[in-house]
Amino acid sequence: MSAYVVAIIGSILILLGIMELLRRRQLSEKYAVLWLVVGVLLLILTIFPGLLGTVSVAAGIEVPSNLLFFTAIVFLIGVALHLSWELSRLEDETRKLAEDLAILRLDVEEQGKRLRSPKDSGH
Amino acid sequence: MSSEFLGRALIVVPAWNEEAAVGETVREILDSVPNADVLVVDDGSTDLTAEAAKAAGALVLELPFNLGVGGAMRAGFRYAVRHGYDAAVQVDADGQHNPAEVPDLLAKLHEADIVIGARFAEKGDYQVRGPRKWAMVVLSKVLSWVAKTRLTDTTSGFKATGKRALPLFAENYPVEYLGDTIESLVIAVRAGCTITQVPAHMRPRRAGTPSHSPWKSTVYLGRAGFALLLALIRRWDVSVRASTPRVPTPTATVERGAA
Ligand SMILES: Nc1nc2c(ncn2[C@@H]2O[C@H](COP(=O)(O)OP(=O)(O)O)[C@@H](O)[C@H]2O)c(=O)[nH]1
Ligand SMILES: [Mg+2]
């Protein structure tokens, strides 16, 4: 019985943590939806532990915890893949920023030189 | 509306692949608001948007990749703050906002920090139906309540931002989907800015295709609701005093060096 209470408190804390990150704008909208859904599902499963058993029977899985492990692994692989994709995009964007910055720096330097040297300034 | 706007205004035009429309839009703005500067923010377009805008006489910020309307507008607000403008007005590149109405929006800045050009269905060709329409109605109701003033079109991009709100938006303008319309108003209210609206006519777009297609409208309803919810629960420790420090721009330094 006490394990049940601890589990519920844990789930609520996780959900509150997600909400607080959201409120402080440390999570952008696209990740917010994902983690809110996860948090709510977690809470529902903790409050109604029988639900997992019912779903596993329906899915033809003998040990209910295996269903939990299976979904968790698939979900985490999905998240890892998505993060790799985001990271690759970010890397490409930072590169472009660095390249544009170098071009700008050259442009500004050239402009400064032209303004300083009296020979070229008469146009 | 007798009072005229006397400060320096920057017209910010977010544009993404609008080569067919942006030139004429810029020329029209320069005709209607001769003493304003036009800044086109070319958001990683793959066509000749930047060239068309420059040829028409606009200043052009070329972003190296797509940042979305919110990101493009924030770049515009930052430019406005750094160069000491007194107001910034968003005008869409596709020609749907009528530049002739920009002076009306600017004149209203005497009464509020933000002026929305509200599209009234009976005054133009602008029509929306189905889920997107319902979303717009609910959004307007909720945001009117938040802002404590009657707002009928809170998803309009046609907006004037006054001097008090400029530094706030330069720092905090939302870059997420729909954030530039919904959340920006909530941030402004939280920071103590006042909002009002003037009627505006919506014209059909000049060329190209809108970024929202009709089949996306149900998704729009859900995301708009979520964006509103987020905007309302998020904590904004902002005040209109929070500002981007005005740093000397490279051009200003060069000019002084040359003198
Ligand atoms: N900077 C920028 N502008 C965009 C982007 N998507 C659309 N726009 C511009 O925003 C304006 C409004 O877009 P539009 O597709 O007409 O949307 P609607 O009028 O709300 O249906 C136009 O000037 C577009 O060029 C984007 O990703 N970045
Ligand atoms: Mg449009």
What structural keywords apply?
heterodimer, A: 123 residues, mainly alpha, 5 helices, B: 259 residues, alpha/beta, 7-stranded mixed beta sheet, 9 helices, globular, disordered C terminus, binds guanosine-5'-diphosphate, binds magnesium ion
What does this structure look like?
The complex is a heterodimer of chains A (about 120) and B (about 260). Chain A has five helices and no strands. With about 120 residues, chain A is mainly alpha-helical. In chain A, helix 1 packs antiparallel against helix 2 and helix 3 packs across helix 4 (about 65-115). Chain A is elongated, with a radius of gyration of 27 Å. The model of chain A has no long low-confidence stretch (mean pLDDT about 90). Chain B has one domain (about 10-255): Alpha-Beta Complex (Spore Coat Polysaccharide Biosynthesis Protein SpsA, Chain A), CATH 3.90.550.10. Chain B is built from nine helices and seven strands, in the order E-H-E-H-E-H-E-H-E-H-E-H-H-E-H-H. Chain B has helices at about 20-30, 50-55, 70-80, 100-110, 130-145, 165-170, 180-190, 215-235, 250-259, and strands at about 10-15, 35-45, 60-65, 85-90, 115-120, 160, 195-200. In chain B, helix 3 packs across helix 6, helix 5 runs parallel beside helix 7 and helix 7 (about 180-190) packs parallel to helix 8 (about 215-235). Chain B is globular and about 45 Å long. Mean pLDDT of chain B is about 85; it is low at about 245-259. At the A-B interface, helix 1, helix 2 and helix 4 of A face helix 8 and helix 9 of B. The structure holds guanosine-5'-diphosphate and magnesium ion. Guanosine-5'-diphosphate (GDP) binds near residues 16 and 72 of chain B.
Quick synopsis:
Chain B: Keywords: Transferase. Chain A has 5 helices and no strands. Chain A has 123 residues and is mostly helical.
Distance between the termini of chain A: 88 Å
Strands of chain A, total number = 0
Supply the number of structural domains of chain B.
Answer: 1
Total strand segments of chain B: 7
Mean pLDDT value of chain A: 88
Helix content class of chain B: 25-40%
Outline the biggest β-sheet of chain B.
Answer: 7 strands, mixed
Overall geometry of chain B: globular
Rg of chain B, alpha carbons: 18 Å
Content-based structural category of chain B: alpha/beta
| Count of separate DSSP helical elements of chain B | 9
Helix content bin of chain A:
over 70%
The chain-level structural class of chain A is mainly alpha
Distinct ligands: guanosine-5'-diphosphate, magnesium ion
List the strand order in the largest sheet of chain B: 3-2-1-4-6-5-7
Quaternary status of these chains? heterodimer
Uncertain stretches of 5 or more adjacent residues of chain B: 247-259
User: What's the architecture of chain B, going by CATH?
Assistant: Alpha-Beta Complex
Mean pLDDT of chain B: 86
End-to-end Cα distance of chain B, whole Å, is: 42 Å
Query: From N to C, what is the helix and strand string of chain B?
Result: EHEHEHEHEHEHHEHH
